[in-house]
Amino acid sequence: MASNKLLMLSVVAIFIPAMAMATDYIVGDDSGWTINFDYQAWAKDKVFYVGDKLVFQYPKGYHNVFKVNGTAFKNCDIPPTNQALSSGNDTVVLNTPGRKWYICGVSNHCSAYAQKLFITVQYQYGWAPAATPQILQVSQPWAATPAPTPSSPSTPAPTPSVPDTIVTDPWASSPISSSPPLPTPIAPSWPPAPSLPTTPAPTPEPWAPTTLSVPETTVTDPWAPAPAPWAPSPISSPPSLPTPTAPSWPPAPSPYPWI
Hints:
Blueprint: H1 2-20, E1 24-26, H2 39-44, E2 48-49, E3 53-57, E4 66-68, H3 70-75, E5 89-93, E6 98-103, H4 109-113, E7 116-122
């Protein structure tokens, strides 16, 4: 209960001075809320705080005031008529900080004559709302101290080991495999030449007579007398003498020379 009262007092202490120092701004000053007026230049040198007021003064029935968002402000989108302020002396209290947009919804006053206003509202003197005060908790000495909860040692579950996988890029070109070695050519084997049949030697018939081969010998007459060792050798004939050749004489002269 005491903490709630303290919070309310803090809020009142912050906002009461701000409300007391609030400023009333007559939009457009002496020109009021009308067409063909640069309201952005009018608001450029002003700082608007929470609690300030905007007063829109204009001839009743000629203009009105709509509070819109940023998109409607840019496009001059006109809200429903029941949302318009049309008293001719409309007061808008700036209760919250942030951006504010206002336009005139009569005819084409917004789009053709730039009858619209944009401002930014700040906290009073740049202050943000006070933070919520923390409530101090006083420990009671007589309160029983809770027994500490026994902490059981927690054994982390073993992380399953994941086998390493090699991730290949799907684009990557496939590695060029080396061509296998060519087999060594083997010489063709020719079949062996057929062996000629051997003709067995004719087997002699058992009843055929056996022919005996007798070496040839020169048979001499056993009764021929052997030459005596002392017999002289036969006389060989003398060589033939050459036949004498008659001498050649010149021919005799003819007795008849005229023949």
